[in-house]
Amino acid sequence: MSHPDIAAGIVGQAAEPSQEAPAEGSAPPILSLHDYFRQEKPAAGPFLSGLRKAKPKGFEPDDVQAALRTLPETDPEFQKCFGLAQRALVEKSNSLAHACFQFVGQAVRQRLAAEFNLDIDLETPAPDVFQAVAYAVKPALADKKLEKRAMALLLAAALWLFRTRQLDYAHVITTLRELVQPPDNTKQDPTARQIQQNNYRFLAQFGSRAATLKALADFIGPWIAQAQHMRSEAARQEQAASALRRDKEALERALADAQADLAASRARLAEAEFRVASLEKALDEERVGGRHRVTQVKADIQGFLTAQIMPLVADAGEAASLNPPRVHVVAERVETIGDRIGRKIEWLKSSD
After folding, report:
1. Tens of pLDDT along the chain (352 residues)?
2. Alpha carbon of 45 to those of 63, 89, 90: distances in Å?
3. Residue 21 shares a structural domain with residue 132
4. How far apart are the first and last CA of the chain?
């Protein structure tokens, strides 16, 4: 039996029972790992469905230890454990899925240590762990009596590392390809076309039959979905960044306009002050017979500037110095200053 046939058989046997629903009048649902693995052909779907209602947070520690202790007898080919991992991958309860993969991880490590003399260090990066598992089981893949068990163990390890350690699917595919097609060390620096050709050659090896191709697609589907989600998220973040850049540019333009308006208002104020000074000089030259009137006009002008103009100028300057500047406040103060100065000038003209 070839490795593709093994993969298809494993996926088919593990996935089909999970779609079955318990018939009416059947026995109570199984709610422990130990009882689940004691079944000859356990159905992972109904098992998790029953747990979701009765024990949504997972398994009891004693149950986990009992299941691990008897696992070599209850699941010698590791088919049941792989089937549980497959079904847990699409489990809608995060806490229950997490509990399942915690168990699968323990089962994988226990089986690797017992049968393949491989002790997994959980501090090791996930890609290195998966590669170590792949090369530990590689000799068993050439043994007809062990290949089915080895493939189930390898794929269960991949699902466990994906769900708990974010193992990238591209690394899984690359490692699986190396198991069935050793790399050609005579070629250096492959081109993009050569990489594509190698990928399609691997796909052809694993997908020589429709059932096998579907099994492969089902297996790598979660990683593909994750990659698509990451691309969509990157595009969304880029759009958000572009919107922020546009907002920043608009704010900078508004600030420049506000600063220009403030400069213009200061120029108008300087002009008004100059005209007031000119009027004061003219009034001084005409002090004969009009000293009392001149005194009144000076007091009025000074009071006007102090009480009505300078506070507005101060407000405008403060609003422009804020971050972001209060553009509408600057505009309002400038308009008010202009109006008041204009009215005062007209009053002065009419008083000649």
Report:
1. 444 443 434 344 344 333 444 455 566 778 899 999 999 999 888 999 888 888 767 789 999 999 999 999 999 999 999 999 999 988 888 899 999 999 999 999 999 999 999 999 999 999 999 999 999 999 998 888 898 899 899 999 999 999 999 888 788 888 887 776 655 555 555 565 665 566 555 555 554 445 555 555 666 666 566 667 777 888 889 898 888 899 888 888 888 888 888 888 888 888 888 888 888 787 777 665 566 666 777 788 888 778 878 888 888 788 888 888 887 887 888 888 888 888 878 887 776 5
2. 19, 11, 10
3. yes
4. 115
> Structural domain tally of the chain?
2
Structural domain harbouring 77: 3-182+190-208
| Angle between the N-to-C axes of helices 126-141 and 94-116, in degrees from 0 to 180, rounded to the nearest 10 | 50
Q: Any long-range contacts for 138-147 (C-beta under 8 Å, 24+ apart)?
A: 138/179, 140/116, 141/3, 141/179, 144/1, 147/1, 147/3, 147/6
The C-alpha atoms of residue 350 and residue 226 are separated, in whole angstroms, by 80
pTM beyond 0.70: no
Please state, as a whole number, how many other Cβ atoms lie within 10 Å of the Cβ of residue 32: 18
